[in-house]
Specification:
The structure is a single chain. The chain is an alpha/beta fold. It has two domains: about 170 residues, 3-Layer(aba) Sandwich (Rossmann fold), CATH 3.40.50.1370; about 150 residues, Aspartate/ornithine carbamoyltransferase (Rossmann fold, 3-Layer(aba) Sandwich), CATH 3.40.50. It contains twelve helices and eleven strands. The strands form three sheets. A five-stranded parallel beta sheet has the order 9-8-7-10-11. A four-stranded parallel beta sheet has the order 4-3-5-6, sandwiched between helices. The chain is globular, with a radius of gyration of 20 Å. It binds aspartic acid. The site of aspartic acid has 8 residues, from helix 6.
């Protein structure tokens, strides 16, 4: 499809059979989601639609003037209850690139510090004109509560340990750019680190199994707790024909012949005592260093959602090596978020003609 300057497009021709990672007959895909809170309800053709529109947004970002009027007059509000650099800045840049009006609420200087509840804050922001609410919260599930009381669209910028859908989508987009034919089917993708506390890992499970990747989650057993049972019971949610994933504490086995290695931050702020003997020991046993990365395929890429603890989960030389695509991830985040704002704004338009089913 071609991204028009009008924000009313909700469907597009993309290839996809509906099966995991599916290449197949072209099908019309409509965007039905009013909110984007996680990828568990997003089908593979819908993910392909997002990827397709992201391509178009990359085209806009490559222009000398990276601004289109698609969301002119639409109001995007960011509400972040947790620290963020790249997610917040890239959402705001994405909204501005589409000519939306952006309001940025800092909870540290808002009435939240006077005890205002999430529900009251969301109602207040809606009364002040918010149409798309991008939020981050330390409590898993907080965006569902916001979506219950908000008349517009909620876009999750990360909630607790639960989900970070735009990160998983920008990760997928970046992997597709580097893998031959943009095809992840059968490709070994390894996520190493603090899986337990990671909303990035949880959202990536949905998208990467949908893409048909051979997905491995790796870390100390204390930071994988529960994931083995999830892997065994995995049914892929809304994604027909999804792949499976596996968990292991054997970092060498995980890295061997990998196509993609993603290191995750050790989340000290969410860590209860006793899960790790020490950061030094973690770095020695699981850190992605030059020696370990040599087990992966020679063309393997190294990713990290940031912020990095260099010298802990990733060695500084690996983080800046030719394999690392970490700054590409950040840049792709703007395009992916433009695509999602665009789709949600279109779904909002469609609501007037009764097309939105969710
Ligand atoms: N920035 C990512 C997140 O917000 C990863 C991290 O914090 O480690 O989940």
């Amino acid at each position: 499809m071609t991204v028009d300057v009008e924000p009313t497009v909700t469907s597009a021709k993309v290839s996809g059979s509906g099966a995991a990672g599916g290449a197949g007959a072209a099908s019309d895909v409509a965007w039905h989601h009013r909110h984007l809170i996680d990828l568990d309800v997003v089908t593979w053709p819908e993910i392909e639609l997002i990827m397709d529109i992201t391509d178009q947004m990359k085209g806009i970002l490559a222009r000398p003037i990276r601004k289109v009027p698609a969301l002119n007059g639409r109001r995007v509000t960011t509400l972040f209850y947790e620290a963020s650099t790249r997610t917040r800045v890239s959402f705001e840049a994405a909204a501005r690139n589409l000519s939306a009006d952006v309001v940025s609420v800092s909870t540290a200087t808002s009435s939240v510090t006077k005890g205002e509840s999430l529900v009251d804050t969301v109602r207040t922001l809606e009364a002040l004109g918010a149409e798309i609410l991008v939020m981050r919260h330390s409590v898993s599930g907080a965006p569902y509560l916001a979506a219950e009381v908000f008349g517009g669209h909620v876009l999750n910028g990360g909630d607790g340990w639960h989900a970070h859908p735009t990160q998983a989508l920008l990760d997928l987009y970046t992997m597709r750019q580097h893998l031959p034919g943009g095809d992840l089917r059968g490709r070994k993708v390894v996520i190493v680190g603090d899986i337990l506390h990671s909303r990035v890992a949880r959202s990536n499970i949905w998208s990467l199994t949908a893409a048909g990747a051979d997905l491995w989650l790796c870390g100390p057993s204390t930071l994988l707790r529960g994931f083995d049972r999830w892997a065994a019971a995995w049914d892929g949610g809304a994604i027909p024909g999804h792949g499976r994933f596996q968990v292991t504490s054997d970092v060498e086995a995980a890295l061997r012949d990998a196509d993609v290695v993603m290191a995750l931050r050790i989340q000290r702020e969410r860590m209860q005592g006793g899960l790790l003997p020490s950061l030094r020991e973690y770095a020695a046993r699981f850190g992605i260093n030059a020696e370990r990365i040599s087990l992966a395929k020679p063309e393997a890429i190294v990713m990290h959602p940031g912020p990095m603890n260099e010298g802990v989960e990733i060695a500084p030389d690996v983080a800046v090596s030719g394999r690392a695509v970490i700054t590409e991830q950040v840049a792709n985040g703007v395009a992916v978020r433009m695509a999602l704002l665009y789709l949600l704004a279109g779904a909002h338009e469609a609501a007037h003609v009764g097309e939105v089913v969710r």
